[in-house]
Design a protein that fits this description.
about 15% strand; single chain; 4-stranded mixed β-sheet; alpha/beta; 2-enoyl-CoA Hydratase, Chain A, domain 1; about 290 residues; about 45% helix
């Protein structure tokens, strides 16, 4: 597959330049703060599917171009389907709304499949958080084995605040990283978390200076990639085995069922309108048919 919205490179190990063992994935929509469009989700899904067969790559680093890691789902494209019931799809007739919502469902299915493939990679995965990591962008970070952040990075889980819900392992991974109370605090308030607080909470494993950040992350990845091949693979596999003990198909399905149900509601439409109009949302569900106070 030709990539339009991500960049993929296999780089030499800075510590052993003769060995090209580090994969670098760059989310590449810098003007849109690397929001996850359907195209980007598809490309990441395809790349992670290929990577599991690439024995030469020992460590995979994921980062974002420009000022952000990723600000999550691309609400501008998603809101079009949710607000106009498919008018922009060029379809007519009684199936237009059905097709619109079905295509929106596919967006969520693809995101979940892509993150599952990321979690299942045999390589060690490092999220190099170079700026904002928000919503699905934060879930992408949480699905990586290790999170390294620049000192100016910021984090937020805004799905609930925008009328949506975590959908790609976020509820599970954030709870395991932070504990139930702290995970709920982030999920239910949508508050902004600095890199320093994220390290204190356990969301970030290492902080690095902003200046020369990516070079420092690649050097760290090189330290890991230089370890013996089988020792590295087995260490990752064993830790992954215990980490994913509570991951189940039922859990994934519950997340998917929740987000699909939510995207049918007027609250999610209100959250999308409020975001696009840059105003606070006025959620009223399930009482939209009652008179406003």
């Amino acid at each position: 597959m030709e990539f339009e919205e991500i960049r993929w490179q296999i780089l030499p190990n800075p510590r052993r330049p003769a060995e090209r063992t580090i994969g670098l994935v760059t989310l590449h929509r810098p003007e849109q703060l690397n929001a996850l469009t359907p195209t980007m989700r598809l490309e990441l899904d395809a790349l992670f599917g290929e990577l599991r067969h690439h024995g030469g790559v020992r460590v995979v680093v994921i980062t974002g171009a420009g000022r952000a890691f990723s600000t999550g789902g691309d609400l501008k494209s998603e809101a079009q389907v949710l607000l106009d019931a498919g008018e922009g799809l060029g379809l007519e007739g009684p199936y237009r709304k059905m097709a619109a919502y079905w295509l929106n469902d596919v967006r969520h299915i693809l995101l979940q499949r892509m993150v599952r493939r990321l979690e299942d990679l045999p390589q060690v995965t490092i999220a190099a958080v170079n700026g904002w990591a928000v919503g699905a962008g934060l879930e992408l970070c949480a699905a990586c084995d290790i999170r390294v952040a620049a000192e100016h990075a910021m984090f937020a889980e805004v799905a609930v605040s925008a009328g949506f819900e975590t959908e790609a392992g976020g509820a599970r991974n954030l709870t395991k990283l932070l504990g139930k109370g702290r995970a709920l605090d982030l999920l239910l308030t949508g508050r902004h978390v600095t890199a320093q607080e994220a390290e204190r909470l356990g969301l970030v494993d290492r902080l690095l200076p902003t200046e020369g950040f990516l070079d420092a992350v690649l050097d760290y990845a090189g330290e890991i990639a230089a370890k013996p091949y089988l020792s590295l693979r087995h260490a990752k596999d064993l830790v992954r085995y215990y980490w994913l003990q509570d991951r189940s198909d039922e859990g994934w399905q519950r997340e998917l069922d929740a987000i699909i149900e939510i995207t049918r509601t007027r609250d999610v439409q209100e959250g999308s309108r409020a975001f696009l109009e840059r105003r606070p949302p006025r959620f009223r569900g399930p009482d939209y048919d009652a008179p406003e106070a």
